[in-house]
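Appendix B, record 7
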Amino acid sequence: MTALRDSLAITETDYGAVLLDMEDGNYWNLNHTGVIVVNTLREGGGSADAVTAIRQHYDISPSEAERDVTDLLDQLRQAGILDEQAQ
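Structure tokens (predicted):
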């Protein structure tokens, strides 16, 4: 299961959101699509749920939504802010 680390806070803005790591002070700007993905993870959903949520908001193909989710999850993973072992 993929989940956000507990030390993260999210604040929505007019342009998307800011994701802040409360432990080390690092932050990331998210666009509106990123907010949908992050909120889906925060609610206990996975990547397939995020794809569905994006498609409910935007008129895009399943493959484009899946690519967007995969790309964002890869970036979050590289930044070390995903907890891959969360239950």
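Remarks on this record: The mean pLDDT is 89. The chain has three helices and five strands.
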